[in-house]
Amino acid sequence: MDAKLRCFDVISAGEVHLQLGSASRDGQRVFSLRRGAVGAALSLASAGLRVGLVTTLDDDSLGRALLARVAARGVDVDGVSLGVPSRGIVFVQASGHASDVVSYRDEERPFNVPPAWSSAVLLLSGLTPVVSVAGSLCKAARAARRAGSVVVVSVGARSHVWQGRDPRAIRMLLREADVIRYTAHDLSCLGMEAADVRKEARDGAVHVFSNAMGETVTNGPFGEVATERGRGRAPATSAHDGDPVTTALCVALARARGAEAQQGEMWRRLAAESHATR
Q1: What is the pTM of this model?
Q2: What is the side-by-side order of every strand in the sheet holding 76-83?
Q3: CATH domain 7-274 topology
């Protein structure tokens, strides 16, 4: 990793959620990122932010192709590590003419934010029960908070990853978050209720929750703000990259910066303006 000092609007760190589609016209497989650290980084870069990516990719043709694609979109990838590929369980779920293909390996795949990097917002995405990954995210969150960054945790749970696992594995990370973004689907995968998340979070944390009806509710020290489906605004991004609610929230936080991020009025404005729908 490069030791050069770099300041970003957002550092996106965490696991990769990869979707492989049907073959393209030239016979090559195509892929897109809907959630996770890479999808979030691409979405934020499309919104005009300076973004650094921190994750681990397989050192194979697919991993290198993904790395090149992300770099070409303007994301700084010097925080990405390439690891030796290993066999794992691959989950395939048919969806129209595409397939969701996700490799899950319960192994050591930690990653670290370069110490010379700083940002207004640290976004942690794609939580897993793997101890080394959870440890990496907690370490990054603590360092970012000490440096004055706003820490946003986007749960992005996947059912096959969390089936039979103890959701308390994310407890330490939730306690480090300034903002926690989660959906009804996330809670279902984790076997948790919204009240459980609030119980684990630290006092003063802001919760951004989207229910099964498509309504997004933000709760924090300022009270509650709800945005109905079809209302709210978000930066224009690819339909295949990232979660629009998380993107809009991080954009607003990055632009707010400093002491303003602690003001209740700012949070009410962000809640009203940054919510978006899929």
Answers
A1: 0.83
A2: 76-83, 51-58, 6-14, 117-125, 150-154, 179-183, 206-210, 216-220, 223-227
A3: UDP-N-acetylmuramoyl-L-alanine:D-glutamate ligase (3.40.1190)
